[in-house]
Structures are given as structure tokens and as C-alpha cells.
Amino acid sequence: MPEKRYLSARSMAVALTVILVCHTLALADGDRLLDGKTFVGPTGEKGKEAYASETLEFRKGKLYSVECARWGFGDGVVTTRQEGGAIYFEGETFSKEYGKMVWRGVVREDIIEATYHWHKKGWFVSTVLDYWFHGTRRQD
After folding, report:
1. What is the pTM of this model?
2. Are the C-beta atoms of 82 and 30 separated by less than 8 Å?
């Protein structure tokens, strides 16, 4: 009869640690697919004309909206995934006073198309406002 071999608890722990570290590093690299890129273009409320110009920056696994910063929104963690020639992203930014923004979009070559939903805090009722952003990559 063949001899059965089992991994020790220590060997199992080391193997699991290696797998988790590799998985975490793969996720971190995936979420940095847009790092160092900045996009500029018009933005507006859904169904309406542009009302402003937006600058959306990606750095250190986060996204930052220059236009929304005036409302106290900081940078927020972004997740990305690549499918073919497109990079899809999602992220959230927060303002203590004005609520949160949920961003979703796609980057193809040097073009970005995104939507963002402002979950605006109110005294008694929160409002959700929908916006769009279309931009091109700024070459620094």
C-alpha cells in the first residue's frame, strides 16, 4: 500500500500565506492600471449639457476629482479591471458635509467615459444626482 503524506500545519500556513500575498499583490497591481493618468473634459448632469470642465486624476490606486474637491471631496480608492483594450474602473469619494460620489467608467486608449452618482446628504432626505464625464488624457 502506498505511503500517505500529509503537510504539516506549519507548511500549510506558509503555503496559504504565499497564496494570499500573491493574490493581494495581483489585486493591487490591477487597481493601479490607471495610475499616473489624468483626464480632462466636459461634465454635466445626466440628460443635460456640460456645465463645467472636469479633471480626473488617478494616482496610487485612487481617483481624485478636481471639480468635486470644491465640495470637500477627497480622493477615493479605485478598483480596475482590464478587458481587451479597455480598462473599467469603479471608485467612491467622500465629503463629510456633502455625502459620497460613486464613480464608474471605462478608459479606451486616451478616452474616458464615466458616470458618477452624487449621494448628497440632506437634513432629512438624501438626494441622488447623476452626472456624466467625457474626457481625453492629458499628456503631462
Report:
1. 0.76
2. yes
Contact (Cβ atoms closer than 8 angstroms) between residue 133 and residue 115 = yes
Q: Which residues contact 107 (CB under 8 A, 6 or more apart)?
A: 34, 37, 39, 86, 87, 89
Burial environment of residue 52 by CB neighbours within 10 A (0 to 12, 13 to 18, 19 or more): exposed
Q: Say if CB 89 and CB 63 are below 8 A apart.
A: yes
Q: The C-alpha cell of 109 is what?
A: 486608449
> What mean pLDDT do residues 58-81 have?
96
What is the rounded CA–CA span in Å between residue 15 and residue 134? 45
Rounded-to-integer distance, Cα 121 and Cα 118, Å? 9
Q: How do the domains of the chain map onto residue ranges? A: 9-137
Q: Residue 81 in contact with residue 30, Cβ under 8 Å?
A: yes
pLDDT (tens digit per residue) in 16-63: 444 444 444 444 445 799 999 999 999 999 999 999 999 999 999 999
Residue spans of beta strands (DSSP E) within 36-110: 38-45, 52-59, 62-65, 76-83, 86-95, 99-108
Into which CATH architecture does domain 9-137 fall? Beta Barrel (2.40)
